[in-house]
Amino acid sequence: MSIRIGNGYDIHRLGPDRPLILGGITIPHTLGLLGHSDADVLTHAIMDAMLGALGLGDIGRYFPPSDPKWKGADSLELLDQIYQMVQQRGWTIGNVDTVVVAERPKLKPHIAPMQQCLAKRLAVAADQIGIKATTNEKLGPTGREEGIAAYAVVLLVQE
Ligand code: MG
Q: How far, in Å, CA of 31 to CA of 45, rounded?
């Protein structure tokens, strides 16, 4: 059995008049994440972790913000494309573990729906997707609610 590990990080600014989408779930909030795509920072961190495990660069290589094609893109559809790359190379997902850093809103009620959404998309059980939420104790850009950040680790397995 072979294994591969990858890690990913992403941060997006918060701004008005945008939906807040994390892990494919729209979360009620007064602010949303700004970006060329739907700015789903959690899904982006997972995608980068997968690409890292495959040694295939980062999401900017495949979905450059300069390309109008990805404007307003549904990040779950981008995740599908990266997951296809994982499968095409004969890898399966061992597990995914993540941390979302957000001062507000409280993410606890949304963790299970995010977990289920991502697990379905990646054809794994919900307990193979770890999602943890933390504040940044009001420190730094995430603490000042200027943005939301996410970290992800992915383990890939090949029999
Ligand atoms: Mg991003």
A: 20
Identify the CATH number of the domain in which residue 107 sits: 3.30.1330.50
User: Could you read off the pLDDT of 80-139 as tens digits, one per residue?
Assistant: 999 999 999 999 999 999 999 999 999 999 999 999 999 999 999 999 999 999 999 999
Expressed in angstroms and rounded, the spacing between residue 70 Cα and the centre of ligand 1 is 12
The parent domain of residue 43 ranges over 2-158
- 1 Cα to the center of ligand 1, angstroms: 32
- Split into its structural domains, the chain has a count of 1
